[in-house]
């Protein structure tokens, strides 16, 4: 059984689960809860079944859930999923990621997962009569509209981090954002840091995998997009691939180069991207997984490739070297 602590700004769907609608900008409408996921098989990325969702509370985790998270004494993994993820997909993916990290052979990667799931429709291509690209555009719109809710979630994580670090001084808090989760992250980060910046680091390490976000996101003036993220983390690892099929789709639809395609725009400028803060990991030539099975495999290399997974584990443990090209 895998435990996934989560928050969501999805509207309840009336079945006890959550759908594709988005709640208003009201903290009491954001649901915090715990999911139990069974039958996670690392040989099958679509595996896992949500057995139950319980301990639902508005605006924050319950005292009992918070105590569980803090008292596990494991590192914390904060996970933001990408586009084309229904609620069930997002929770099962969070559980899957927790389990494959836990089997990596490094104790630092055996983590407690805390996920935020925004209202992706779980449709890469919208059905007729919609245009094929409408599914992507709808998800991007919902990710952007999730900025207020994600900002609130980051505030909760900051409070949780303080309790966690007090109980686990050597514990690490890791952020893993995949795909369009990075677009949601920038919307939330801008909203949150407009009012304040924490007086301490929020994350020990940030991992941005196949980021569907503009490649100048760290170079925006006035705290725009992800430009404040370096102030909140010890190290940021950016994984990108020029073979990522989703990045081609995103570039075509957004008419901008994406961070997950070839890394940041000025990644060679060490004044902008100091090596002590940023790692650039070029995954273009990674070939240890089937590239077209399923069709979006090249967008999922962060967990399909054992080579990339090993590098992410090193980043989680704080032992990863600098820039790398596979």
Topology at a glance:
Layout: E1 2-8, E2 10-12, E3 18-22, E4 31-38, E5 49-58, H1 63-71, E6 76-80, H2 87-102, E7 112-117, H3 134-145, H4 147-167, E8 173-178, H5 181-195, E9 203-209, E10 233-240, H6 245-254, H7 259-262, E11 278-282, H8 301-304, H9 306-317, E12 324-325
Number of domains: 1
The CATH architecture designation is: 3-Layer(aba) Sandwich
Largest sheet: 10 strands, mixed
The percentage of residues in β strands lies in 15-25%
Q: What helical percentage do the residues reach?
A: 25-40%
Low-confidence stretches: none
CATH-derived topology: Rossmann fold
Would you identify the CATH H-level superfamily?
Alpha/Beta hydrolase fold, catalytic domain
- Terminal CA distance: 34 Å
Shape by Cα distribution: globular
Mean of residue pLDDT values: 94
Radius of gyration over alpha carbons? 18 Å
Count of separate DSSP helical elements: 9
**Helix vs. strand class:** alpha/beta
Widest β-sheet, arrangement of strands: 5-4-1-7-6-8-9-10-11-12
SS elements, strand count: 12
- Per CATH, the class reads Alpha Beta
Q: What's the order of the H and E elements?
A: EEEEEHEHEHHEHEEHHEHHE
